[in-house]
Amino acid sequence: MNACKMRRDRPSSCIEDLFEKYRPLIYSICSSIWGKQAYRITSYDDLFQTACYIFVYAYHTWIPERGKFGSHLKRVLKYKLMNMLKGSAPPWSRGYPFTFLSDFKSISFDERVETTSHKLAEDPTFYNAVLDILEQQ
Question: Which of 14, 28, 40, 87 satisfies CB 3.0 to 4.6 Å to 4 for a cystine?
């Protein structure tokens, strides 16, 4: 059996190797969420950092006998990030939740416009997300 698949005796280099292997998947999932939900997210960096945190959670909850790490990671990342978008706390937060979401309720309309303008300049896909919201209203 591969040393990285042994649940209790995984070497510390294993998580680093898996992270490098699955970094493109993490970026892909973050980019997909960013493209659709950028107006709600503080920054892409915060989203990616949260996804990396969830990667560690997925690594520790992975049971090799139940399947490959890649499929487990993809399922956990999508599920946890989408739940956090709905307001759930991140895994293992123990009453000290963090979030990658913007807190638009506590800022003025002018600050919202400024934040939106800044995000439009950073990412052109954000413009489409704003248009989608306006069409829904």
Answer: 14
Residue found under tokens 């945190």: 53
Does the predicted model carry a pTM greater than 0.70?
no
Judge contact between 120 and 126, C-beta under 8 A: yes
Rounded Cα distance between 48 and 106, Å, is 24
Q: Where are the domains of the chain?
A: 16-90+102-136
pLDDT, position 16 = 87
Q: How many helical (H) and strand (E) elements, i.e. helices and strands, does the chain have?
A: 5, 0
Q: 67 — alpha (psi -120 to 50), left (phi > 0) or beta? A: left
Task: Report yes or no: 125 and 132 within 8 Å, Cβ to Cβ.
Answer: no
Q: Express each pLDDT in 72-87 by its tens digit.
A: 999 999 999 998 888 7
